[in-house]
Description:
Chain A is mainly alpha-helical. Chain A has ten helices and no strands. Chain A folds into two domains: about 5-65, Homeodomain-like (Arc Repressor Mutant, subunit A, Orthogonal Bundle); about 70-190, Tetracycline Repressor, domain 2.
Amino acid sequence: MTVRRRGAALEDSILEAAWTELMSVGYARLTMEGVAARAQTGKQVLYRRWRNRAELVITAVRHHIGSVADQIPDTGELRSDVLAVLQRMTQRQRDLGPEILHGLMAEAPDLAPEFLTVIDGVMTTLLEQAEKRGELKVTDLPVRVVTLPADLLRHEMLLTRHPIAEKPLVDIVDQVFLPLVRASISSKVSD
Amino acid sequence: MTVRRRGAALEDSILEAAWTELMSVGYARLTMEGVAARAQTGKQVLYRRWRNRAELVITAVRHHIGSVADQIPDTGELRSDVLAVLQRMTQRQRDLGPEILHGLMAEAPDLAPEFLTVIDGVMTTLLEQAEKRGELKVTDLPVRVVTLPADLLRHEMLLTRHPIAEKPLVDIVDQVFLPLVRASISSKVSD
DNA sequence: CTCACTAGAGACGCATCGTCTCTTATGACT
DNA sequence: AGTCATAAGAGACGATGCGTCTCTAGTGAG
Lengths: 191, 191
């Protein structure tokens, strides 16, 4: 070993090695030793930075695919905005695959709550945009309805092993979300 | 060792040992060796019957808490029927705890689809009962809406680490499911 | 009473964990 | 330029659990 890396350069190498390892052997069979070997470094270097597999992998995943909240759609219509968000979510699931998702869910307890708050924020923004356009009143909607499209999609991701097609997304929006939004508006009138 | 067990007696001992082990150390730290030791038998006896940890645990769980479909509520009203099913689901989740649920989901790919079909059948029965009473027409409802209460609850179970209270169940039924059922009926009229 | 079957027990080789140790490259500070 | 604390690279280490294999001796069927 002639050159010895440090700081960010080293960390990037490790995260990239972890990602490659993740893609080639999956989560269940990813080992700290494997990552260290691929990154041409020692295990101790990994354990100095992450307490376990799960934390390392989460960092690696975040490092490679950003957050759904990174860019919020604004198409001028609530329906297509929501659909766009759901599509972004499925894209991320496709990148990871179900095995990694389940593995992380089982081993990283802190991950799930974060999913919730992130999407919550995004959906709230979408609804505020719609409200500004006069499509609806945000206050009409129970929180449960606001997070519902993402919740249903997430459920689908966790319970099926295959990547999710376009149809379920459309169904969620058209058969569940939008009817509820409409019902909420008309019930407000009859109050 | 004086007495040597066989057949069902032996199998029951093992399943009970597995359950006890599950309750005392959780799923992640349950080992085949631990179960064998507690059941006072050898590992080979386990491997003769189950291919791995996940299958053994699934059998043990089924052996101790039956299926949601074991008894289908019939209270005379759709709302309370659905609530009763959701309550039975949360009861089972309480018995298991989130850690076991996640562990099994990650390691036993065949488990998830089964959840889906079981609840699907139960909900369909509830709706047929309601239809017989004249509460609604089953054909009005998209499949997505039929499975929706269970789907949402399952989502909640998988994403929160604590047992689920009564309120979310009521919210799911009153803020999401029933409004959709009603909307579906009235939209049918205006078709 | 005999015998095929398999329970009970644990040794085995392998993989991986997380810790520890050792040498030596590196960059910050004189 | 020279010194030095720091941490990188490498791998040995004991522990643990996997899944397989082997051996013996209960046990129920006939």
